[in-house]
Amino acid sequence: MLTIDEIKRFIAEDKSDSRKYDARIAQRYYEAEHDIKNYKLYYYDAEENLVEDKTRSNIKISHPFFTELVDQCIQYLFSGDEPYARSDDPELQKVLDEAMNENDDFNSELSDCMTDAKVKGSGYLYLYKNKDGKISVQCADSLSLIEVRAKETQDKCDYVILYYVERIGKNHQPITKIEVWDKDKAWFYVQDGDGKIEEDKDVDFNPRPHILYTKGDDETLYYDSFGQIPFFRLDNNKKRTSDLQPIKALIDDYDLMSCGLSNNLQDITEGLYVISGFDGDNLDELIKNIRTKKTIGLGENGGVDIKTINIPYEARKVKLQEDEKNIYRFGMGLNSAQVGDGNITNVVIKSRYALLDLKSDKFEIKLRQFLKRIVEVILDDYNKSHDTAYRIEQVYFRFERNIITNETDSAAIKQTEAQTRQVNIQTLLMLLDVIGTDEMRRLICEQLDLDYEEIKDKLPDIQDNPEDGMDGLEDLLNGGNDEQ
Question: Which position among 328, 380, 385, 403 has the lowest Cβ density within 10 Å, counted as fewest Cβ atoms?
Answer without folding.
Answer: 385
